[in-house]
Design brief:
By secondary structure, this protein is of the alpha/beta class. It has nine helices and seven strands; from the N terminus they run βαβαααββαβαβααβα. It has one domain: Rossmann fold (3-Layer(aba) Sandwich).
C-alpha cells in the first residue's frame, strides 16, 4: 500500500467505513481516545465548509450523496476564484467532494486522527502517511437495536428503513467516487462484525494490529 513505517509515535490515520447503525462512530471515538488522537466525522464537514467560506449546512445536506442524487450544481454569488476547485459561478457536487478530500489530505499531512466515512480510505490511498482502513458491519437486527437505542428512530420498521436507505446512499457515494466497492472486504485492511465482540474488544484488536504493523503504542490502556 506504500505506507511509510513510522519510527515512533508519529502521524498516522485510521479510516472507518461503516454500515448505518453498526457502531462505526462509537468505535472511531473509542480508537481516538485509546491513541490520544483527534476524531473527525461531521466535524470534517464543518472544516470543509470553513475552508470554502460556505455554510456548514450546505455540506451537511450533501453529506455522502453522489451527484445524481444531489443535483448537478450548487450556485452562489460569493467570489472564491482563489480556490482551485471553484469555477466562479457554481459549486459543483464534485467540488464539495474535492473540498472534503483537501481537508482530509491536510489532516493526513499534519496530525494523527480517525476519519469516519466520506471515502477517506480511497482519498488517502496514495498518501505516504501510515494508515489503516477499517469497515464495520453488523446484522440488521443488531443495527436496528442500536438505532433505536440512540433514539434515531422509535420503531423497528422505521429504523430498518433508515438503515437500508442510508446504506444505499453511502454505497452509491463510495462506488461513484472510487474504483472499489463499499463494504467489500478486499477494499479494507480490516473488517469487523460489531455484533460478535464487545466494542472494547474490537478496539483492542485494532490497537494490537497498529502496534504490530507500525510500532505505534496506545496512550491509554483498555479500561
Amino acid at each position: 500500500m506504500g505506507n511509510k513505517q513510522p519510527d515512533s509515535q508519529s502521524n498516522f490515520i485510521i479510516t472507518i467505513g461503516r454500515q448505518f447503525g453498526s457502531g462505526g462512530r462509537e468505535l472511531g471515538k473509542m480508537i481516538a481516545e485509546r491513541f490520544g488522537i483527534e476524531y473527525y466525522d461531521k466535524r470534517l464537514l464543518l472544516e470543509a465548509a470553513q475552508h470554502a467560506g460556505l455554510s456548514p449546512e450546505l455540506f451537511e445536506r450533501n453529506d455522502e450523496r453522489m451527484p445524481s442524487l444531489m443535483g448537478s450544481s450548487l450556485t452562489f454569488s460569493m467570489g472564491y476564484g482563489q480556490l482551485p476547485w471553484y469555477n466562479g459561478t457554481a459549486m459543483t457536487t464534485d467540488s464539495i467532494y474535492n473540498s472534503l478530500a483537501n481537508v482530509m489530505t491536510h489532516l493526513a499531512d499534519t496530525r494523527p486522527c480517525v476519519i469516519v466515512g466520506r471515502s477517506a480510505d480511497y482519498v488517502l490511498r496514495n498518501h505516504p502517511v501510515a494508515k489503516v482502513s477499517l469497515f464495520v458491519h453488523a446484522p440488521m437486527e443488531d443495527r436496528v437495536k442500536r438505532i433505536m437505542g440512540r433514539a434515531d428512530k422509535n420503531h423497528e420498521k422505521e429504523a430498518r428503513t433508515l438503515a437500508c436507505k442510508t446504506d444505499k446512499l453511502r454505497a452509491a457515494y463510495y462506488n461513484f467516487y472510487t474504483d472499489k466497492k463499499w463494504g467489500d472486504a478486499a477494499s479494507y485492511d480490516l473488517t469487523f462484525d460489531s455484533s460478535i465482540l464487545r466494542m472494547e474488544d474490537i478496539c483492542d484488536l485494532i490497537a494490537l494490529y497498529i502496534r504490530r504493523r507500525f510500532g505505534i503504542e496506545p496512550v491509554r490502556a483498555n479500561r
